[in-house]
Amino acid sequence: MFKEFREFAMRGNVVDLAVGVVIGAAFGKIVDSLVKDVIMPPLGFLIGKVDFTNMFVTLADGKTAGPYNTLKIAQDAGAVTMNFGMFFNSLISFIIVAFAIFLVVKAMNKMNRSAAAAEPEVAAVTPEDIVLLREIRDSLKK
Known about the structure:
Blueprint: H1 2-9, H2 12-48, E1 57-60, H3 71-77, E2 80-82, H4 84-118, H5 128-141
Antiparallel strand pairs: 1-2
């Protein structure tokens, strides 16, 4: 049973999948940082000095009554909040990841099409016995 599992785990597809998951996780962290640290601050500044991470609606007060200036203060107080600013961050992250994957798939499809077009079609070499049988057939027809 261990031998079968080892053969399964060492297949090319499983190893490729594992590499893809690790790279995908790292890519997700990069995109998350890009959104939180690069895209959202200027966007919030253009909208009017808004910090998207602190955009929330208090549904129920916590131990101490609101209003709460930041999401962290609201969460520390135990307030029930709807964090739509965090949703905006996640939405922008998703759009960036989806666009990046789209570009990668588009590039791969283009490479596959150009590789298929560049391959010259090789004429199939007819086996010698088939050629001989055809000659016999043609001579019998005559």
